[in-house]
Amino acid sequence: MLEKLLALFKLKEHGTDVKTEVIAGITTFLSMAYILAVNPSMLAAAGMDQGAVFTATAVSAAIATIIMGVFANYPVALASGMGLNAYFAYTVVPMVAGMGITDPWKVALTAILVEGIIFIILSIFKFRETLVNSVPANLKYGISAGIGLFISIVGLKGAGIVTTDAFAIVGEDGTATVSSSTLVAMGDLGSPQVVLAFVGLILIGVMWHFKVKGAILWGILGTWVLGIIAELAGWYVVNPDAGVYSLIPNFSSGILPPSLAPTFFKFDFSFVAGHFVNFAAIVFAFLFVDLFDTVGTLIGVADQGNLLNDKGELPNAGPALMSDAIGTVAGAVLGTSTVTSYVESTAGVAEGGRTGLTAISTAVMFVLALFLSPIFLAIPSFATTPALLFVGLLMMKSVLKMKFDGDIADVVGGFLALVMMPFTYSIANGIMFGIVAWVLLKVCTAKVKDIHPVMWVSFGLFVLRIITLVAGA
Q1: Which residues make Cβ contacts (< 8 Å) with residue 456, sequence separation at least 6?
Q2: d(Cα 72, Cα 322) in Å, to the nearest integer?
Q3: What's the rounded Cα separation, in Å, for the pair 325 and 131?
Q4: Residue 163: how many CB atoms within 10 A of its CB?
Q5: Gap between the Cα atoms of 229 and 236, Å rounded
């Protein structure tokens, strides 16, 4: 058995062994297991069954990660992507619901299915690398940093630290006018949710400083445990009518994973025919964000593990990208948001993981986690807020790579992608404004030759999207 593993994953060639790979895989799982608490909570806000989403998240992560380990032999784990799940829950679903569509989350799952199929086709013909290389670096970095800010606002709002609810503006004559502005305001800083969320962020920061493995996960669990203590002490008062639920796990139904039935193969293709342009824009936004997230993660992990070739290229990239595409389709069928490669895989690589055996070990941990659903489903949104804030912080590091004194199209495009995501509360809007501004500035500065055909296609699609928004206003 040992010899087969050595041969299958080429452990000797990569200077590693079974023990190192297994420990690395467990480390990667601990670093990204927070998604099992965050994703069900976020998609439940979109109207999906929380238990089914938990099972779908764990199973799709295991499937995609196994495929990555066996066929690509990379120490990279996959799961429902942060940022992409926020776009799913807080942009796509509300937009579709505004059109009077029942169960709008089914439309979002349909878009993810189409995205995954497109990715499979693009991977077969090696188009994904071309698409990624055609987008300027500044825009890529702006998109990544913008998603970081967007995730942070989602986290802050989830714990009640900030609010975007309507508020009254009092004029000089003493009259009050109710404003529906989305400008943020301070929440109740004395509430247990807000206090514990801040405590959790500090916990993660301290553990991160001392290089504690799985700091983000332990931060979530620590905040949750403090919440249970607050509930038992009477500070955190359970009130289901106000959306405040008990934090104590309910094992009355056993430890078997929740059923997938509420989300399995739940698609709505009728929306495509009646709202094709809107649907195409949704698919493109999923496609675009996932493109850069996946390729950037693969290159980052490979670089840290010294897996890039002499030209700085990613060997065996085809199977890796195909694994990601298949994972996306599997996730849509099971009932979860876009599955993508996780940058937390670098934690396992830092522990010595170099081959697909690391990924297989992580996948096994996701399977075992299925039987801990009562724990993960009892974790409240304020306990996941520290994780969202810290992940947002990590993604914001991309702004350090941005150039603000170069080509004006790159500068403005990247900046708009960065600021329009949080300020319009939409990842898609950030990408749209960034690309449209970039193309227009290239045209106005007589640099049309710099515009790759795929950017023209992107520009045209987003112009159509703007037209539909204006027409529907």
Answers
A1: 439
A2: 9
A3: 15
A4: 14
A5: 9
